[in-house]
What does this fold into?
Amino acid sequence: MLAEALTPGVNVPAPARVVGASPSSSKADAGLSQIDASAPFLALETVPPLAIAIELFRAFNEGGLKYGIIQDLASLQNGLAGRDDLDVLLDKHDYPVFCSIVSKLHGCRGVSLSCYDNVCAGREDWFLPDFSRGCYLHLDMHIGVRVGWEFRKRYPVFDYAAITRWESVCVDGVSIPVVSPEDEIRIAIARFAFRAWALPWRQWTTVGDGWRDQFARLPLPSGEQGLHVVEYSLGGERTASCRFLQSADGLVAHRRDLARLRRSIREMCGFTGRYGVADAGVHLARKTSYLALRFLQRLMPGRFPPKRRPAAGGIVVALIGPDGMGKSTQVDRLTRIFRWKFGCAQAYVGIGDGNGWWLRKALQSLVFPHRRRLKSLAQRDSNNSLSRNWSKGGVVAAALALWAVLIAFERYAVVKRAHRWATRGLIVICDRWPQALCRGYLDGPTIPPHLFSVPGLSVLARLEQRLYQKMAECRPQLTLHLVSDFAVSEQRKPGEIRKEAFDARLSLMAELRAKDKNIRTIDASAGIEAVGQELFRHIWLSL
It folds into this structure.
């Protein structure tokens, strides 16, 4: 029988278990150097922790914070490596110190809509960047653990003082408190009690696959017929117990015991009467809203606020540079990194292989093989009205002007959409950005100046110019210029661009930076990882 009261006790740390290696260890021992047989939650595969995780928990220990990791211990190494969440329980009196520490480490808090299941009082999402790897650590921070229905967690049952014993793991010389197996089972059972469901005539309910991992490392002593009992002391003389049975079919829990535990928790929190019906109704309404919103988000991306966004709101980031600088590669990479936990989207304002209007792409596939001949035909004899080819050249010139206006409208729509998405809380990373300073370069206007004097075409030329001026007024919150030598571009995309055109684009970018001192420059000659880390650092510090 396991019968330990859920009351504050003396925290007795267990001997530390080594997860990573200390800095003085050899490279061969850089991962999991020791594995305690009593700690099956430690993964056998070596996953190096993020440097920011070590720095964070060292700061917690030096600041004397009362904290500990309380659940999902099976994925502890993945959490420290930035591949999973870390559920941290913090004493509420240490919350100001916690905020001070994470702010010094450039931490960012995430906010979610109220209809999502992870929104409840006393819980916050915090993210800390690791600039050395170009990724971030996710802290699922709890002032107190609340239990209840999935979309109705309203009952605060566990706080830091309610944990009777903390163990510890040692990661690169830093001790990290983790909840003991006895306290972990109490938290898991209290959460499971509000999620379990069984037919009224059944005495036992099966612990589903989604919960078995949380019960896997719990050393429950076996009694007769494999029966286990967990007892709770819920304040005063109020107690509750829950029976579990390990059978051939798996782990099952007593249905009535779970019902009594739910009722006792509600009474401890001051809720008496038919609150179970109210909880179910609120849970159903919120889950329906959640499913409807998720469906609409997939049906119409960007039209609705994301599940999670930075507390300061969204941002529009533009990556600009000549061909061969790795813009598209970095946009895809950054979108994948930020989309792990935040609402993130990418936009393309060029006329290449990226996304675009189907009409423009269909016309482009037909016209592209003949583009040089059409341009020369439009420019030839444009000032000679008696020329034999004047009518043909004039028609082609008008067609090219209409084509330029179509591209301008498409880019204008992309620019406005990117800012709308950012207003809704998304991080929008744009491949290129239009400019109105120079024609023919860096996604600027394309109608030649001599067509301004041609009757009829001058209207289209002025319309294009006006659209680009409007786009110039909608600047991104962050503009990043990727610069390098022509040799780098030629090596990555041989024959894609001539040196004269490459140098013209670099000169235009320098002119743009002279007009806007907030534009930042990134050396694109480094490797993909190094450039991505630098881009990640600039974007994170702008959130």
